[in-house]
Every structure is written in C-alpha cells, then in structure tokens.
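Today's session is about reading a structure prediction critically. Students often jump straight to the picture, but the first step is always the sequence itself: look for stretches that repeat, for charged clusters, for runs of hydrophobic residues. Only then move on to the predicted structure, which in these notes is written as discrete structure tokens rather than atom positions. Here is the chain we will use throughout the hour.
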Amino acid sequence: MIFTSIIATCLLIAIATCLLLVQSYIKVGKKYSGIKSWITGVFLHTLGIIISIFSDANLKDFTVPISGILVLGGLFSILVGINRFFDKFTNYYEESILMLLAAISIIYFNSFNINITFSLIALNVAYLAISLKGAFFLLKSRKKETNHSIIMTASFMFALAFIALSRIINAFFADSNSTYHLANSTDYNIILIYYIIFTIMIINLNLLINDKSFQQMAYEQNKFKTIFSQSPLSMMMMDLETDIVLDVNETLIRELGYSKKDLIGKHYSQIRMFDLVKDRPNTRQFDANPHDVFNKEVPVLRYDGEILHSLLSISIVQQLEETLKIISLTDITEIYELKEKLDRYAYYDSLTELPNRRLFIKHFNSKVENRESFAIVTIDLDDFKQFNDLYGHDTGDEILKEIGTRLNTLVSGSNFAARYGGDEFVLLLHYRGYQEELTSEIQKVASVLRKELKIQKQSIQITASIGTAIFPLHGQNLRDLMHKADIAMYQVKHLTKDDMKIFEE
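Below is the predicted structure for this chain, in token form.
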C-alpha cells in the first residue's frame, strides 16, 4: 500500500512538472532549445510507468515490454534535451543502436524466450549508458552562474545510472517464482528509489531553465548597463510613462556639464537642456506616439548656456518589468557649422553677404505659394562701370559691399533684399494695394542709396535707377515680373537716372 502511494505521488509530481515544463516552453521555448525534448521525455517516461503499474503478471503480457521501451525512450529524449539546452547538437548513433538492441531483447526475452535476467539486463544496460552520458555531459557543460543546478541534475543522473547498475546485478538473483518484469522483492525497493530520484531530477530540469533564464537576464541587463554607461554618446534613461529621468551616463555629464543631481528624478520639461525643443511640434508628436522611433537634429543647452547642436535619437527598451525611453545625443556641432557655411555659400553672395539669386528665387516661390501680394523692385547702380574704371575694381567691390549693407538695414519683416548679379540688386516688398505707399517706401530706399560713401578716405556718391512690378497685378511668374520691372528700370536709366518707376502697361 505504501509502495503504491509513493508511486502515485511520484506520478502526480511528474505530471505537474511536465505541465511546468510546458509553461516554461511557452515562455522561453523560442529562446532555448531542448525544453520540448524534456517535455516529450517526461511524458513518455510517465506513460511507461503508468502502463507498468497496470501490467498483468501473467506471462507474455505485451504491456511489459511497451512500458520498458517507453521509459527508455523518455530517458533518451531527456538526454537529447540536455544536449540541445546547452547548445550542443550531436548525433546519437550509439544510443539509438543501443536502444534498438534493448527493445529487441526486451520483446524477445519477454515474449518468445522468457528470461527475466536477460530482459532486465538489456533494459538497464541502456538505462545505464544513457544516464551516464547525460551526467558526464552536464558536468562538462557547467558554468559558474548555473553550477549548482547542473551539478544537482548530474548527480541525479549518476544516481539513475547507479540504480540501473544495481538492477543489472540484482537480475542475477531473480526468484524463479517471480513475475517476469521484476527480479525479486528487492527489485521493488530499487524501482521505488528510481521513481523518487527521477521525479526529483525532472523537478531540477525546471530549475535549470530558471537558472539559465536568470543568467541570460543578468547578462542582458549587465550588457545594457555597460553599453549605457560606457557609450561615447551622451545618453539619458527615462521612464516611458512618466518621462522622469532615471539615469544619465558619464559622457553626458562630461559633454554638457550638468551633474546627475541636476537631471535624475526630474521630468524632461523641468530640465534646462531641453528648453529649446520641448515645445516643438515634433516633440509633442513623439509624446503622443512614444513608440515611434524619434531621430532629429536638435539644439540642446549646455549647463553654461552654450548651444550644442546634436542628433537626438529616442528608442524604447524593455528591461525586466520596466519600459524605458533611451535618449542619445550625438554632438554634430562641427557638422552643423559646416552645413551653415555650405548654406551660406549656396544661398548668399560672398561679397555683399546678401542673399543671392538662388535664395531670392526660393523666397519668391514661397510668397507665390502663400498667395501674398508683393512688389519686385530691381535696382541698377548708375554709371557703376565708370567708378570701376576710375577707382579700380577693389573700390568697386567696396561700393557693392556698402550698398549691400545699406539694403540689408532697410528690409524687415516679410521684405527681402538680394544681389541679383553684378551691380544689380533686387527687393521683394510687401504691397498693401496702395501705389503711393509703395512709391514712398522705394523713394526711401533711393534716398539711402544716394547718401555719400566713404571708401578708402574718398567721398563717393552713387545713385540708382529703380524699376518695380507688382504681383499679381503685372504677372504671375518670376520671368514676367522681372522683365516688367527691368523695363521700368531701364526707362528711368535712359531718361533721368537716380529715380524710380512702377511698370505701366
């Protein structure tokens, strides 16, 4: 009765452990190999034990070899799972041949030539070989982090091997009156010990999974911390839900000058370094969709108030039970300054530092798209070639520079001034529908231009002929408007010079 109760308890524990293995497989099966083989092994082994309990004691009971083969197959499947769990995918030719021979022997000595000794020896030799191989492989695969669980599991497999050896020896003392699947009464006790040890061993398989999971988790966490703390990029860690800063790395402290006390525990909107970007539309857009990858060029404030141009990247990281927002800042100040220089080369005149024709066209197109009403004013300096011939080109360049400076001080708001080429300048002036008002504004420009220039200790007075065309009154495109403004300007130049005229049809 006690024997049956212990066996039943072991079976229940084995079934429960099998279910736990299934749960472990669902959680980490894609990450670790071998767990499915363990589940199969425990299932086959447990099924074999259940069949053996209900086996008939009569001779030639077919359930006896079936239960033995199932138990053997279960143990073999557990061996395969152990190998795969530790990332060793090997062939099992010897074990497969041994299992086949054992199965043939069991069937033969149980069904055709009844001999309990040979039957038990064939079965337990296979048990012994498989258990020993599993134990030795576990010992070879042990690592510091999982040393305890691996040694425990290996110890149980050695114990199973020892029990198999005990049954082999005990088989030579089989009672002649014994049923053919048990050698004698001692065999009952040996099998009972086997069931208990096997049950403890499969419980330990779950511990192996937990150990490896914790080891992997610790490895990933340490790797993340190492990358975060030693990254050459300035990095900040925030809680995804609250936007509270949890940690910053040393690179950020060194490059931006803040202390950890200035940053950790605060909402990002309370941090001075983000004052220039926290109200931007794309920042609010990211707050609304935090799982979108954010990668933008932004200015951030250093502790000393200096602006650091950076490439700001935000990514979402899952660490244990926390979802984190990782902000990394790449210093692109040099690239930004180079870009600014390239933009100036592309869009600004190097002599006068006014916008060039390319930027003028871009500005013109923007006003047209916005359906603004404006006037194009073309300015051509009177007799500029004579100044070049009289004073030299260096003085001519200085005159152009001074004219550029004066025009630059005249424009404000939506108005715009550019050097169109040579000694020709162009303005875009806002037009409110009153030509008198426009005429008055252009005359102010002419008045400023004709003021005496002091260049290389010489007093020079220069005038300009000015022509104007109005959008959309005089045209819809740049070519037409420039042509009509030039017509008005050349009328002034050929008639009086030093005057202005609005185009008339």
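Discussion point for the tutorial: Residues 185-230 form the longest helix (46 residues).
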